[in-house]
Amino acid sequence: MSLERQVKAKIAAKRNPQQDAEAQEWIETVLGAKFPPGELYEDVIRDGTVLCQLINKLAPGSVPKINTSGGQFKMMENINNFQAAIKKYGVADVDVFQTVDLWEKKDIATVTNTIFALGRTTYKHPEWSGPYLGPKPSDENKREFTEEQLRAGETIVGLQAGTNKGASQSGQNMGAGRKIILGK
User: Fold this and answer.
1) Which of 16, 118, 161, 169 has its CA 20 to 30 A from that of 56?
2) Residue 20: helix, strand or coil by DSSP?
3) Angle, alpha carbons 101-72-133 (nearest 5°)
């Protein structure tokens, strides 16, 4: 099997049809419109217009101009505008797919993961009342310790450090043993 085919197989294995369906359902619910019947999820979102409409619903005015006609560069511009808008909305850079992942349909799983990241980010925006996608991100659980509590921890030997009860180094060999070379 060629390397290219192995890479394609690995990317295809990452894809989860259940997650794609959840992402599509969330987009449809937010936009209030169903995807055209018979069209694949990745084909509907490929030109970026649906994604731009999605971020404009979540944060009005995020993408002021959505290209609905023109060449592939205009459609790829939609994808780039969507990516910039979701970063501004709060999605981390590491969660954002590359433009070619969607445009050339190279890695739709990554695109779906980005949509899930956007869905999780909506929890952090009180102006958004739902629907949400994915689990709610956890909040910080900061703890305060007194100086006395911190000092008490210094005297305890953790179990990871082990104990020396009955331990010895007998029978341990570290590295190569000594070699005696007799004459040449």
Assistant:
1) 16
2) helix
3) 40
**CA torsion, points 60, 80, 14, 37, in degrees to nearest 10?**
60
d(CA 130, CA 113): 19
Are residues 15 and 108 in contact, defined by beta-carbon separation less than 8 angstroms? yes
Contact 27/55 with Cβ under 8 angstroms? no
Rounded distance between C-alpha atoms, residue 123 and residue 102, angstroms: 25
The CA distance from 183 to 110, in Å, is 65
Sign of CA dihedral 79, 84, 90, 95: positive
Cβ contacts of 178 within 8 Å, gap of 6 or more: none
Per-residue pLDDT of the chain (184 residues; tens, 9 = 90+): 687 777 767 766 677 888 988 999 999 999 999 999 989 988 999 899 999 999 999 999 999 998 888 788 888 899 999 999 999 999 999 999 998 888 888 888 899 999 999 999 999 999 988 798 888 888 778 888 888 888 887 777 665 555 666 556 565 666 666 677 777 6
What are the φ/ψ torsions at residue 149 (nearest 5 degrees)? -65, -40
Percent composition of the chain: helix, strand, coil (DSSP 3-state, to 5): 50, 0, 50
Q: How far apart are CA 136 and CA 124, in angstroms?
A: 9
Which tokens belong to 3? 């390397």
